[in-house]
Design a protein that fits this description.
- The protein is an all-alpha fold and about 140 residues long.
- The chain has helices at about 5-10, 10-15, 25-30, 45-50, 55-65, 65-75, 85-100, 110-120, 130-135.
- It is about 60% helix and about 0% strand.
- α5 (about 55-65) crosses α6, α6 runs antiparallel to α7 and α6 packs parallel to α8 (about 110-120).
């Protein structure tokens, strides 16, 4: 079932494509997905409008659902077999900075959710790849 990634790996496909949210390719990917009523429901607007979502929409959703922010940060953190790509790290960094700049108070819940991503970018050891160091 090589051609069924959009059926069985919806979350991973969305996370992989999110750094390219401003492209038509992202719109096509979202249009292929059956998102349902889960955490990615906010992307239904992309299906309807056929327009790429501005990053602000993703930032607002991360503020509304901190679980999405945590997913992004975990996806962009290096402790896995493959290092995250530069676009993934840049996107997660931009979203995280915009979330922090948009909220009134940075509480312990938000810090807990972004801490792995932030510390992996600050470590000078071999944990992060070269792209992670150029944030």
């Amino acid at each position: 079932m090589i051609g069924a990634i959009h059926v069985y790996n919806i979350e991973e496909l969305i996370l992989c494509a999110l750094p390219y949210h401003d492209t038509h390719a992202f719109v096509r990917i979202v249009q292929l997905l059956n998102i349902g009523n889960g955490k990615w429901k906010f992307l239904d607007g992309v299906k309807i409008s056929s327009a790429p979502p501005p990053r602000k929409v993703i930032v607002q959703q991360c503020i509304y659902d901190l679980g999405i922010l945590e997913l992004l940060c975990n996806y962009a953190s290096p402790p896995k077999k493959y290092q995250p790509s530069r676009p993934t790290i840049n996107f997660c960094t931009a979203v995280t900075v915009e979330v922090l700049g948009s909220i009134m108070t940075v509480d312990s819940d938000i810090v807990k959710r972004i801490l792995t991503f932030v510390t992996s970018g600050l470590q000078s050891g071999s944990k992060g790849g070269p792209d992670h160091k150029e944030m």
